[in-house]
Amino acid sequence: MMNFRNLTIPAWTWSFLAAFVVLILTFMVAGGGAKTLTLAFTIAPYLVLVGLGQMLVMSTGAGNIDVSVAKVFSLGGLVSIAVGEATGSWVLGLAAAMAAGFALSCVSLASIIFIRIPPIVATLATSLLASAVSLTLAQGFQGSADPVLKGFLGSAPMGVPAFALVVLLFTIFVQLMLGRTTWGAQTLAFGQARRASEYAGVSATKTLTIVYLTSGVLAALSGALRASFSAPNVELGNDYLLDSIAVVVIGGTLITGGRSEPAGIWGGALFFILLDGLLNLIGWDYAGQNILKGFFVLAVLFLASGVPIIHRRSASANPADLTLPEAADSTASGASFDVQASAERSTVT
Amino acid sequence: MISMNPIRSRNAVPRGLVRRVFPGAITLVAMIVILIVCGTIQPRIWSQTGITLILSPIVAMVIASQAQMVMMSIGDIDLSIGFFVGMVTTIVATILPDTPTLGFLALGASVLGYTLMGALVQLREVPSLIATLGGSFIWLGLGLFALPVPGGSVPDWLSSYAFWTPPLSIPVSVITMLTATVITWFVMQRTGLGARFRSLGSNPYALIRSGGSVLRTRMLTYAIVGILGVLSGITLSAEIGGGDVNAAPGYTLSSIAAVILGGGVFTGGRAVAWGTLFGAVTLGLLTVLLTLLNLSSNLQPAVQGAIVIAVLAGRLVVERVVK
């Protein structure tokens, strides 16, 4: 790592660059003001929390993904408001939501570890379970968020949203955990080479348990907070599934596992939220917003992901193909990794 | 280094016909059991109309699952098929009835869009999961652009096909399903194209050394997925009698579940057209069964999820016993 030749632009730069470009465009259209940023930082933390969980899951290697975050998010919102209303304490409400997320993750984990169901199908089954509970709970649902919590989530002294600072601290915590602790090293090693790390003594069960539980708990917690910020709803989390995966990857985390970029999630989340704001501002309808969002995701992928355009990266940092066992060979045998070489490699006979 | 690993032979991906067919067979058993239970509760489904009624909502899902199966045979995953099918229904319901030429051009262009997505995945080595995710935003946007609110009407030839009563009291939905499956099976298992797809999934170096182009193969795969997606959309709009971009977002994940139930694998290299048919029909029939059981519609998703897990757990148990 200390080798100077291996120094490259951090993978998360691209997402911040994209967010920055959108911010400049917003200022050009709307005439500027810190208000735009304050608003973006008020909404972004919810997506960041879900994204952090998703990132941990995706870091543990190809095929690991949590597609239940959307429904768990909605359920977390409903549970926290319901429990908070019944007990009169928003702390208990948040705790109940986290417990619900924990329980649902246990269902996913049991299917993944004991029945060996691919994670995407296992978490899909969990999300069906979560949506059934949400639908039952939402029948005749009444209740509103605790004003104290709601006040905190909306508060922004001197234009700095307090909640965003808390989530920022949590992001730094996750970054330190991944970078500085044995657990982090083990998790990333597991993502890079599952079998090799298992020989080195990393427990697959333990690694998977921690990341899936974290993802479930964070999704439910984020949903609980989001519901307190606005209002609980069965559909509340629907956008968060695709968005969470997109911001994680735009942020520079490798979908093949083994490299996490917690900072990049902020860039990705701000990019998405500022983009939505900008398009609203210039009067694009929802249809146009989605088309542009899709093109932006593909454009960022084109620039940031895959084969590095400028730098030669170490072989393991190449997200060649999602599931190919041969992918490592392909990167090891290729001599140079610019666009042209990749194109040639594709047509080599 | 890996070849010296003693555990490898035990953990290696199982090969051979039995291994490929077995998971689909288990799903077929589950499908027949569900069908029999449905028939016991409501004997009137044993008629041409009855079978048509319970199967016609599943037809589009079967074709979308075949698309996902083709995608998974090369080791990629398609997260955009649900919105793509939805977008196709909006094209079918708005442009196709009045200006058929323009409509078919639009459908052709969407297949081209899929092909370009394949080129992006290959050239920039982008994960398919994320590229198709980006694509799904575009399909959703285009669909909303074509038809902001559900509606429109389908061309006459399409609705007359949907209401066609074939001879020998064969339900039209069964004909469509079987045709789609047979064609997919034939292409994947009996043509050189299918062999190249599967080789891209299992061992791309074999494909390169045998003179194939990885780029062209991946683009062709995405083109075929796009064509199947268009067929699924046409079938779905015939079924719902109009267009709605949000008609089938659930297809994305259900189709993956159908392929897994049918014996497909995420690592690619395996094409299971028949298994996918059984998987998709099983998932569809579950909804029918739960409705017949008068289960609260709120609880249906939970039971559906539990049964998917149960079938996969049952397969694991049987596999252990067979071993």
Automatic annotation (TrEMBL), chain A:
Which compartments does it reside in? Cell membrane
Is Metal-binding there in the keyword field?
A: no
Main location (coarse class):
membrane
Highest rank taxon of the organism: Bacteria
Q: Pfam families given for it?
A: BPD_transp_2
Which regions span the lipid bilayer? 12-31, 37-58, 65-84, 90-113, 120-138, 158-178, 199-220, 265-284, 290-310
Q: What UniProt keywords are attached to this protein's entry?
A: Cell inner membrane, Cell membrane, Membrane, Transmembrane, Transmembrane helix, Transport
Claim: Cell membrane is one of the keywords in the record: yes
User: InterPro entries, alphabetically?
Assistant: ABC_transp_permease
Topology versus the membrane, per the UniProt entry?
Multi-pass membrane protein
Q: What is this protein called?
A: ABC transporter permease
Natural source organism: Mesorhizobium retamae
